[in-house]
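Same chain as my last thread, 402 residues:
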Amino acid sequence: MKKKLQHFDFMLIFSTFVLAGFGAVMIYSASIVYSVIELGVESNFFLVKQLQWIVIGAMLFAFTSFFPYQKYQKFIKFMVLLMLLLLILVLFVGNNVNNARSWFDLKFFNLQPAELSKLGIILYLSSVYAKKQEYINDFSKAVIPPLVITVLTLGLITLQPDIGTAFNIFLIAASIILCSGIRFRHILFLVAVVALLIAFAVPKMITDERVGRFVGAYEPFSDPEDHGYHLIQSYVAFGTGGLTGTGLGQSVQKLGFLPESHTDFIMAVIAEELGIIGVSIVLGLIALLVLRGLYFARKCQDQFGKLLAIGISSMIAMQTFINVGAVSGLIPITGVPLPLVSYGGSSLVIIMISLGILNNIAYQTRKNEDTKFRNRHPVPESQPYPADVVQFNNRGGKTWAK
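reply #2:
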């Protein structure tokens, strides 16, 4: 067992659970007043629920870390059908919150099909483009068919409407497609088509609410009582926190001034209580997850595993960008949670499942490298490995001969 565990990526495991644990602490800090005053429940209400999700996520992380990622290809069709079915059903029987039908209220927990769609699209596109490598340059046969499912998924999510998640999935899909090996001219053609679709769709999607979000992002002080309110309070939190913060639990903005302080705007509370140093540590750990994913995408010899690692890394990177961009006023507020840190069961569990899959890719990649090395440097059973040939460390790395 010890020999098997040494091939897992402990930097990835460490970052995942440190971020999840830190997120639970910050959720408790940010939600105390809201829980007691607004909801009339115990102060640790959101903490307990988040810890429950962390336990479930940890078990699924462990399972997917040991489950061979190649076997997911057998269930791709079923997963895509289930994903599309849930996205259709939620439009009719989903829970209506803030004029959006994005959730199923299952009494014990809320299920958000759009979150499942992130992983579904990653698995689907990675599998399809991996199988089409022999004719990847055939645009009509290799490139176009998978885009039909992707566009359909984006359309169903947009109808909820959940523009933030749709934008996130679009960026994830674009990352996988760009890395799939298709020709550069095909990429340019797709970019042109997307630009035309956006130019056609944007005028039809313009509403007072969406215009207000842009005003709130780029001219918040022109409407400080309505659309600019969230961002202004976020600015106050960042400005108050400064470099080192006011101290854990000492945020003033969470006392009813900053809405969604334990979900979409938890980074503002982190900035106020722990300062730019705290923000930098959180972003550094997330960056470490992304970089480890890209590292194993580069090292993996299997095309499916390579694209899968790219897709998971892109999901975490893009979701972080959208969340932090909204909190800082870089992009309009879209309601996308910060990976592993914001409150939310669906998002947390899907991220941890995805990182478990990434950990299995790391495990198999390292195991294959070690097997190849041993095959190239056979040693008689009666003779131990000479010290000047190779030493295997606890992480599966190697020190080469001089």
